[in-house]
Amino acid sequence: MTMEQQKRYGHFDDQHREYVITDPQTPWPWINYLGNEDFFSLISNTAGGYSFYKDAKFRRITRYRYNNVPMDNGGRYFYIKDGDTVWNPGWKPCKTPLDFYECRHGMSYTRITGRKNGVEASVLFFVPLKKWAEVQKLTLKNESSETKTLKLFSFEEWCLWNAATDMENFQRNFSTGEVEIEGSTIYHKTEYRERRNHYAFYHVNTPIQGFDTDRETFVGLYNEFADPQAVMEGKPRNSHAHGWSPIASHYIEVTLKPGESKDFVFLLGYIENEQDEKFEAPQMINKKKAHALIAELDSTAKVDKAFAELCEYWDALLNIYKVRTGNDKLDRMVNIWNQYQCMVTFNFSRSASFFESGVGRGMGFRDSNQDLVGFVHQIPPRARQRIIDIASTQFPDGGCYHQYQPLTKRGNNDIGGGFNDDPCWLIFGTVAYIKETGDFSILDEMVPFDNQPGSEVTLFEHLKISMDHVIKNLGPHMLPLIGRADWNDCLNLNCFSWDPNESFQTTENVSEGTKAESLMIAGLFVVTGKDYVALCKKIGKAEEAARMQKAVDEMIEAVKKHGWDGEWYLRAYDFYGRKIGSNECEEAKIFIESQGWCTMAEIGAEDGMVAKSLDSCKKYLECEHGMVLNNPAFTKYIYEYGEISSYPEGYKENAGIFCHNNPWVIIGECLAGRGNDAWSHYAKILPSYVEEKYQTLHKVEPYVNCQMVAGKDAYKPGEGKNSWLTGTAAWMWYTVSEFILGIKPDYDGIRIDPCLPETATDYTVQRKFREADYEITIHPNGAQKGVKQIVVDGKPIDGTVIPYSAGKHVVEVTM
Ligand code: GLC
Ligand code: GLC
User: Fold this and answer.
1) I need a surface site. Which of 76, 653, 712, 748 has the fewest CB within 10 A?
2) What is residue 614's predicted lDDT score, i.e. its pLDDT?
3) Which numbered ligand comes closest to the C-alpha of 361?
């Protein structure tokens, strides 16, 4: 490891549940998310980022330019002019060297503190619960021995609502921008005169001595965010934007005696009005709701109270599952960051991050079903609603839209459907929900097809047609046809493309005559099929259970017969019926997805297939940073395979470490009872372990998982990308909480079945489950797997399921 790789940019503060960044020049912007339900913000460690209401595409409140130079330019900026020195608490954009800098990313809040020439500026950013606004509480403190007179400028740049057209349609955009100014509030009302019934505002709870709302007037056409003319000259222009680029900047003169400090509450809010209450006078927006929202958050006391409520909210969420193992690195991921990331992925699916622009992708059918497995224990009613929303985008034949827009909840026609793994995930999500809550009534909910009123059938019926969709689409080996792609969006076996202008995701999907089958879907079908069978039995549908059991058994036979390559499971058959992921192939002889799913399904365990497959993962896929997706990497484009072979070696779906699928193999290891192997795979992609080893190499945030780490064939193995929004979060959670630590919600109670490294020592899990509260202590006694005895409230029980009963229970587990 080089010196450079050992440099540290921050550290965990577990007591406060924060990651503390001590150097603003992180190897990549390290971001956080604010907001929990409707109003959201992304914020980087230098206060970059943006805000939106519900949908990052259609209701973008502030503007952001991706892949900018310099990186991460634009955000909520405070400029402090102290004599000739202009600086920002978050260092950017002026980049004036600070005497002190710190950014603390916490649970739905971020606090950025800077000090310069005896002045401290600390900003607390958060979105209060149930409020459509971002609070920015700025505290200025004079730590010097002289009186300070400062000039403070705030800055936000409005997005003209639709984040996509905002970056494209300039012939229109430059003429539509409109604002209103009233006291210390700047209102953004572009397009309000026509079809929009929403506006935004930026307020500060103190009189202002000036303002700006026109970007060019404030910044200057030949200046930058780093040196806006108005700030540099210490003179606001009181500009009123008409068209071009509207912004919001307050100007405040502040005098601070030695030791004195002052709070300023800035509020970025979003308002919707009823159609017939849009205006208070011709052309003037109705500000009643804005005034009301401002009044709720216009003092330090009110804001501090809202912040305390947010912290209590997180206390409660993180009290549902808490482990004490004595290993800080594990405990902090399980108790804090993994659960936090699960909430974030549940909220955003793959829409808005510093790698996802918020305009391209809505909520994924498969992605969201997986995300909710990591989230369902936190707020089950929201998971329930999500399941209904997702199922409502399904078609009557069980197929579904691959994505839907969160604002409209309508399927996204641009991407369409045809991903044949999608339907199975609905079972995966629904089963997890029922096991957590015991709420079988969800199965009776009436849910439409493609959101068409009048087409409603029960959710159970949706599950049934999901299973049937697989059975009705089997190929020549009686394995599932892959369709456009399975979980691996880039294995496009029916999309033959030589045209660089077409997307692999949407180009033709030749279903006529195809023999392209997927072993990943086969494994997924067996896993979710077993779940479906158990569910049917549970609700008294014996016949349906038997019908599906037969289909599952046939699938298992098909995999054993046509899906085994000798040392591992095949990955697929191509359009022509040729093997993919076989020793016979020239490249990509083995793939991780089918190893993961077929070992989770325990297909052929009795014949040694599972053990061999897991061993092959160690032998061919594992490297220092995790397991790669396929090996060897593709070195050339293969027309019959599609996007997977379009990536250079070691990146993304071409032999990158796709962290999302590593847990599948880890669960396979756990089911096989191989605790040492499970743990060693797990620790390799556990952020807190990576944090210590390679902050600089890894590049992205050390407190969350990223989608992909460059694999062993890459130019720079170990480099992370696509942080935050990834199925990895839910899968890491599912793996560690249920399979490693072994606390598994089940219909009738909690099943205890840990799989641990032999070095594991006693640990305790505090688990709230429905109306019960369990304190479960596990004594591994050096065993990797196998529960010998469970004692509940002093009485030994039979089997491994703690029967559910409300109230507090103390459980002792001996392995
Ligand atoms: C991305 C997608 C996910 C897909 C995976 C593999 O993470 O969000 O849906 O399964 O890539 O292609
Ligand atoms: C690209 C990415 C893949 C992602 C897909 C979604 O193919 O490689 O990870 O799932 O786009 O559109």
Assistant:
1) 748
2) 98
3) 2
